[in-house]
Amino acid sequence: MSVGRSYVEIREAVSLKDSFEKYGIYIFLILLFAFASLVSPAFLKPQNLRDVLNQAAALGIVSIGQTFVILTGRGGLDLSVASVMATVAVIVAKNTGGQDALLFPVAMVCLLFGILVGLANGLLITKRRVPPFMATLGMMIIIQGFRFLYTKGAPKGDFPMFLRFLGRGNIGPVPTSVISLAILTVIAAIVLKKTVFGRQLYAIGGNINTAHLSGYNTDRIITLTYIISGFTAAIAGLYLAGWIGIADNWVGKGYELDSIAAVVMGGTSFEGGRGGVLGTIAGVLIIMMLYNLVLLLHLPVQVQYIVKGAVIILAASFYVRRAIR
Amino acid sequence: MKKLVSVLIAIACIVVVLGPVAQAAERQFSRSWLWDPNAVKMMDTSKYKKEPPYVIGFSNASISNSWRVFFAREVQAEVEKQKDLIKKFYITDAQDKPDKQIADTEDLVAKGIDLLIISAATSAALDPIVTRVYKQGIPVVCADRRVTSENFDSFVTSSSYAMGRMQMLWLCQMLKGKGNIVMLPGLAGAGPAEERITGGKEVLSQFPGVKLLDLQYTSWSPSEGKRIMAALIQSYGKKIDGVWADSGLQGSGAIEALVEAGMKVPITGDHLNAYLTRVQKYEFPAMSIGFPVKMGAESVTTALKILQGIPVPFIVNVTREVVTTVDTVDVKSDLPWDEWARPDWPADWWIDNTLPEHWLPK
């Protein structure tokens, strides 16, 4: 019966479906935003939006790195990010003691720490062929152990005022952390779409053997994605510490899974080679809005887990259909 | 010269003789224990009486947060103080895993301990092994977290019900019995968190003018406390007249959110330095009641009493301090807030610790 349908018709149908799948995350984000504005009058208050964005910043930053890692495909992911975040927070608190003058050198040490963790992850995965799940899980536990040795269980110190400004301040009406997230997102998008590294990364995610045969140094590129992930995790740790303002052994707890959820929701597939950083940011905003909405609607905070889990499964099943087809 | 020497010797003798007496006089008995209207159940421990030195095992649930770190150090510091009576003291760390703690406890028994101190990861999962140890004739002291059955000799704690009640009483009296509050409890399902909610609500029910707007669990996390408080402020705005937080962990985060929203309402918590110093810095009307880390030390002294055949209370309610910035009719400060909060100490330290200098986690 479809014999009569012209080729053009079919192509149009497919491309409509395609674009729906491509932009589905953004449509969902807009719908969620509209829904939230309708059901809760408090949602659209400027301060509430600022709160949501402020809280989204740290998760957004760490999810950018996670996007790079997941783009490599074949089970690439980084479970050590939350451990890096917490460790960075206690390092800053202890070594600056709240003094602005010490922030810059200590922050540099923190970023270096993130990079080294990423390098270790990358080398384990490429040179020793350790599955990413195991390598980064092991790394997560090791860093946790070092953190407890370092703090003896009770972190000391305080955060410099400038870090607090970065984490919770505003420039005009816009939170500082959101500006930073926007800048990092743009940089990441450019790196992914416009640079040789970005193109090679997509190629590896698409088909690592072809990429290898094309003469790409696949090991180096994969290692680099883990370095980026460690680096962004360290930045995210700094921002989250600045936002909370309390040295705690568990800053960023749960961010490893939240960041993976945001990336996958945003359309980056675990098979690699498909997706990007903008979808990830949409995923982050969805997670944070759901959280906020649950509280604004006076539902128990535990409901957020149910909703979040449902949205992750929904998103995953949505993209799987595309992959099969 | 001779005279001086003999005087000095005499003084030394008096100090030596009176030293322990002075110490005993200093020892505080918990008010809630002394004022318990019922007869306190005392356990006969004569059957355990033994000559020192003793071998004691301590099966700890974990040292995964700073409260537990201080608690464990209180145990160790007391053991050091009592080293004449204790030959060996084994410590295990179950890393919050009940199955590991069961194995740990079996190991301790195999090592031939005279007494078991346990802080159970979960009260139900550890019950069978504790029951078995107890039935074997090894005395058991539960510290901070008990097991479900009553198969132990003493439970060293500090009532969480009382804690929730005192916090709520102060808050309601601060509001003069009229206003709206939010409750920010700890971890959903955790014994102390649930007991504090129950205690708090018991008192709240006596103030019909105080309305509970919302109750949200915070997992005892400063960041969750801040995030949830920020959303509640957006949701209820200036309607919130007071915040009941069972701990300074989420309490300190909630203060951050309140400060950012330009609100200053009465808030409750416990003796976490981050909370105490934030209250001081932002001049909040606040109340703090301890969940004393020194129950660690108290569990060791209770253990030693048992092994010496001295009767012990079945429930040892460890003394706690109450501190407020503003007193109410029923809740008075034991000492000024500014003497209690320690801006020179790390934020994650527990102020009511009794640790000697060298045991502080530095």
Plain-language structure description:
With 325 residues, chain A is an all-alpha fold. Chain A has one domain (54-324): Orthogonal Bundle (ABC transporter involved in vitamin B12 uptake, BtuC), CATH 1.10.3470. Chain A is 75% helix and 1% strand. Chain A has a two-stranded antiparallel sheet with strand order 1-2. The longest helix of chain A is centred in the N-terminal third of the chain and has 33 residues, at 7-39. Chain A is globular, with a radius of gyration of 21 Å. The mean pLDDT of chain A is 88. Chain B folds into two domains: 42-158 and 293-319, Rossmann fold (3-Layer(aba) Sandwich), CATH 3.40.50; 160-290 and 323-351, Rossmann fold (3-Layer(aba) Sandwich). In chain B, the strands form four sheets. A six-stranded parallel beta sheet of chain B has the order 3-2-4-5-6-13, with helices on both faces. The model of chain B is unreliable at 15-25 (pLDDT under 50). Classes of the chains: A mainly alpha (325), B alpha/beta (362). The interface between A and B is large, with 38 and 37 residues.
